[in-house]
Amino acid sequence: MSLVNLLFGCWHKNYSFPITARGSRRTPAASLTGTYVVCLDCGKEFAYDWHEMKVITSIPRESRVTAMPEPVHTLAKTA
Fold first, then answer.
1. Could you list the pLDDT tens digit for every one of the 79 residues in the chain?
2. Local structure of residue 46 (DSSP, 8 states)
3. Which of 32, 25, 2, 31 is nearest to 14 (CA)?
4. H/E element, 33
5. Which residues of 27-62 are buried (b: 16+ CB within 10 A; e: fewer)?
6. Cα separation of 51 and 47, whole Å?
7. Distance CA 66, CA 5 (A)
8. Between the CA of residue 7 and those of 3, 18, 66, 68, what are the distances in Å?
C-alpha cells in the first residue's frame, strides 16, 4: 500500500475482470446483480452491471427502502 493510499484512501482505479457468483453463497456486492469486480489495490468488492458494462458504486434509489416500518407497539394485539 502506498503512502498516498494511507493518507487519502484508495481511488479504486484498478479492477479485476468481472466475476459471476454461482450458488447460494454470494458476497454483498454480488447479491445486487450477481456479478462483481474487485479493486486490485485495496480488495474492496463492487457490484458490476453486464448490460451497462460498468461498476455500480451505489444502490439505485428505486430499490432502496423509503418507508419506515410501523412501530412494534401498534402491531400488538389489543384485548
1. 566 656 778 888 899 999 887 777 777 878 888 899 999 988 899 999 988 989 987 655 444 444 445 555 555 555 5
2. E
3. 2
4. helix 28-33
5. eebbebbebbbbbeeeeeebbbeeeeeebbeeeeee
6. 12
7. 35
8. 6, 28, 35, 38
